[in-house]
Design a protein that fits this description.
The complex is a heterodimer of chains A (464) and B (314). Chain A has 464 residues and is an alpha/beta fold. Chain A is built from 20 helices and 9 strands. Chain A has a 6-stranded mixed beta sheet with strand order 6-5-4-7-8-9. Chain A has a 3-stranded antiparallel beta sheet with strand order 1-3-2, with no helix packed on it. In chain A, strand 5 and strand 6 form a beta hairpin. Chain B has 3 domains: 148 residues, P-loop containing nucleotide triphosphate hydrolases (Rossmann fold); 47 residues, no CATH class; 95 residues. Helices cover 52% and strands 12% of the residues of chain B.
């Protein structure tokens, strides 16, 4: 049973369910308690111990059904003869069948068949065949397929393991003596049946164990890929990744208790500290709950040169604003505008489309934008605010209005500049990165989701 | 507690039947979860929309096992002083006064500071001891001699710190009190945690629990629930009512009616002597089912369609 459950859990993990070893142990104990004969009961029990989220439950149920139907077929086979491996089981079965044939598939006696597979096929015992297929498939690595295109190859290997070569030779020998004999016809028919059966089984194994493997591969690749080169096709998936990352960041919020002169009287600590004064309440201790929530302001350059990356930061922001209460978002090419409200009231697609339509793809003017920023938001920046700027600092040779940025830095002390260009191209041509850089606590290159994730993570950590 | 009730919980089916006898109609999943919780001695985390009988499950379980139900309602700002234990500060103060009077006797004739200190150490110290401990729900549950059913209601409303604080209790059925040491459960309680999902619970907590999701019941189960709760209601009306509620749940509402609303509605219809569900009755009693004005306004024009769809199904 341990093996069966172990494989099952392996399959679940492959499908992306996070199952810890403690939960595996619980599942084993539960299975021991309820037994494995009552399928609905087992399904409930394992479900309760293994899946802890509603969205995982559906996946679980699907895999349970797939897995345990194939297991049931196997079990029937096992009851007849538990094989050690393919060939051994084959021989045993062949002997058993020879002694007490279950079916008489042919009227004419079966003679002159040397290949074990041929004998087996002539006997027509499907459940024994199923057992052999499964052990041969395990030996051939059917559970490790990562792509559906590998199915034919593994099917071939399984057929080999079952003794197909020998069988084919025999078939040729029989056919050469008597092409039209019923035995030959039947064997051919059975062989194609068997091939289909093997193929089905291998495919099923692929579905159970490895269906999600390519997805995982793609997800981790996506994390690394450069934001500008993301295919539109992948935007949706990327959006989900962003959502995941934003949620993780939001869960880093903390709520701390600290000592102040206001709030509730902390009776316990007051008495403990005053025990030394004969129990007279001399020093009072107070407690209050403070909610730590970092204020984040994000300014996003959406001018022509960075619009592709900006779209992505906006997407991230949109998700972040969903989960963090105090994010204010600004966009600019030359005029700056606050889009916090827009993000709040409109759906993601609509909001992003509107931003792109109204502000994007114009020539950038950092000087003008910062003047606007000074008017809209400078008064709200305090020492608990983090300001993030996404832009390439390419100012078309205009005045950069550095003094505003200096003031922002003076007030906030946490100013992060994320530049989508690599460090080597800063200050080249019309970029004035080095003028802004002294007034930033962090200047980093950011052009993939991994960068974004890491940087924003550190923002929240220091904000606490 | 488990041993005493062995025959009442020896299989999920028995539990289901026993619950039915107590007027709680449950699905196989619920019965299985209680069975596993009793035998594996693990807490159950119950999730589901409001009003599907999460809290009721714990109450009925305590009735089934005939053991006391200890209930702890969680809320923001709940801390260990309210959940676990508190010192009896008043009495502790009196005790220090008492000590002061005794001190003269203890110290009489002591030579030098060293001897005074060693005499002070010999003198029993009960400032932090059981005498002055005020047990709160969690400690009560651990201390009850014959087990108990502990209901930690709406755990999602409590802070994350509190959730972390529960971990020791949930996995080992013990709790550490800094001044006293570790308190172990005399008899392991059956623990139910309920959550409405207002925030995501931590994985550590989830890992320690069996997870039970109670969805809205199927029509057949809901009819059985109404039969159990409002037995006087006639069958035809019952069918109409359940079908109508089923249709309502399909609509996009702020808050769809749950089982508790269905029961309230059934009781109201019984009280009003309604024989047949029609447009007028539904309109006048709709505020029992829907708790938002927006929802009522959205449903009112649809009543006829819903009613038609509901009768078609039967």
């Amino acid at each position: 049973m341990q093996k069966v459950l172990g494989d099952f859990i392996h399959a679940l993990r492959h499908a992306g369910l996070p199952i810890s070893s403690a939960e595996t142990l619980d599942a084993l104990r539960a299975a021991q308690l309820v037994g494995i004969d009552n399928a609905p009961l087992l399904k409930h029990s394992l479900g309760m111990t293994l899946t802890k989220r509603l969205e995982h439950r559906l996946t679980y149920e699907q895999i349970f059904d797939q897995y345990f139907t194939s297991y049931d077929q196997l079990k029937e086979g096992y009851q007849e003869a538990p094989p050690q491996d393919a060939t051994e089981g084959l021989e045993k079965n062949a002997q058993a069948e020879a002694k007490s044939p279950k079916q008489a598939p042919l009227n004419e006696p079966v003679t002159n068949l040397n290949s074990p597979l041929a004998q087996q096929l002539m006997n027509g015992d499907m459940s024994a065949m199923q057992v052999m297929i499964s052990s041969a498939a395990t030996a051939s690595g059917a559970q490790d397929i990562s792509f559906i295109t590998q199915v034919p190859m593994v099917t071939y290997r399984v057929m080999q393991a079952l003794g197909d070569t020998e069988f084919q030779q025999e078939l040729v020998r029989l056919a050469s003596s008597d092409e039209s004999s019923a035995t030959v016809q039947l064997l051919r028919q059975r062989r194609s049946q068997l091939q289909q059966q093997v193929r089905d089984y291998v495919e099923q194994q692929y579905l159970i164990f490895n269906q999600n493997e390519p997805n995982k591969l793609r997800e981790s690749n996506l994390q690394k890929v450069n934001l500008t080169s993301i295919d539109h096709r992948n935007y949706k998936l990327m959006g989900e990744l962003v959502r995941k990352a934003a949620k993780r960041l939001a869960s880093m919020h903390s709520r701390r208790r600290r000592i102040t002169k206001r709030g509730l009287l902390d009776v316990r600590r007051t008495i403990a500290t005053n025990a030394a004064y004969d129990g007279f309440l001399f020093h009072t201790k107070w407690k209050s709950t403070r909610v730590d929530r970092p204020k984040v302001m994000v300014v996003c350059d959406v001018s022509g040169s960075v619009s592709e990356v900006a779209r992505f930061l906006l997407l991230f922001l949109y998700c972040l604003q969903d989960v963090l209460p105090k994010v204010r978002s600004f966009v600019f090419s030359s005029d700056m505008a606050e889009v916090t409200q827009l993000f709040e009231h409109k759906g993601m697609d609509l909001a992003l489309a509107e931003v792109m339509q109204k502000w994007a793809n114009l020539p950038s003017d950092y000087g003008k934008a910062l003047t606007d920023f000074e008017q809209i938001a400078l008064a709200d920046i305090d020492s608990r605010t983090t300001v993030i700027m996404l832009g390439d600092a390419r100012n078309n040779n205009e005045d950069g209005n550095i003094s505003v940025w200096e003031e922002v830095y003076r007030r906030s002390q946490r100013v992060i500049w994320l530049n989508p260009e690599g460090e080597f191209s800063w200050d080249s041509a019309d970029s004035i990165m080095s003028k802004y850089a002294p007034f930033c606590s962090h200047v980093e290159t950011c052009n993939s989701l991994q960068d974004l994730n890491r940087i924003l993570g550190s923002v929240l950590k220091r904000a606490n | 507690m488990i041993i005493r009730n062995k025959d009442k919980i020896n299989s999920p089916d028995t539990i289901k039947l026993n619950f039915e006898a107590l007027g709680y109609i449950c699905s196989d999943a619920i019965a299985t979860s209680v069975y596993l919780a009793c035998h594996l001695q693990k807490p159950i985390l119950v999730e589901g929309p409001p009003g599907v009988g999460k809290t009721e499950l714990a109450k009925k379980a305590s009735e089934l096992l005939s053991s006391p139900l200890i209930r702890m309602q969680c809320y923001e700002g709940l801390d260990e002083a309210k959940a676990l234990y508190e010192w009896k500060y008043g009495k502790q103060l009196l005790y220090t006064q008492l000590l002061k009077d005794q001190l003269g006797d203890v110290m009489r004739g002591a030579k030098g500071l060293d001897e005074s200190v060693s005499r002070l150490h010999q003198f029993g110290d009960i400032f932090y001891s059981d005498e002055f401990l005020e047990p709160r729900p969690l400690l009560q549950a651990l201390r009850s001699e014959d087990g108990a059913v502990l209901l930690i209601d709406e755990i999602d409303k409590a802070d994350q710190e509190f959730e972390a604080f529960l971990l020791e209790l949930l996995s080992d059925y013990q709790i550490s009190i800094p001044e006293l040491g570790t308190v172990k459960a005399k008899s392991k309680p059956i623990v139910f945690l309920t959550s409405n999902n207002t925030r995501e619970l931590g994985d550590a907590l989830k890992r320690r629990c069996l997870h039970l999701y109670i969805p809205f019941p199927s029509k057949a189960i809901e009819q059985k629930i109404i039969t159990a709760q409002v037995p006087e209601l006639n069958d035809k009306l019952k069918q109409q009512l359940v079908a109508f509620i089923g249709e309502l749940r399909e609509m996009a509402l702020k808050k769809v009616p749950a089982v508790s609303e269905t029961i309230d509605w059934a009781r109201a219809l019984l009280l009003l002597n309604v024989e047949n569900l029609d447009h007028e009755w539904i309109k006048t009693t709709l505020n029992l089912l829907l708790k938002f004005q927006d929802d009522i306004e959205a449903v009112e024009p649809e009543i006829d369609n819903l009613l038609k769809a509901a009768t078609k199904e039967n």
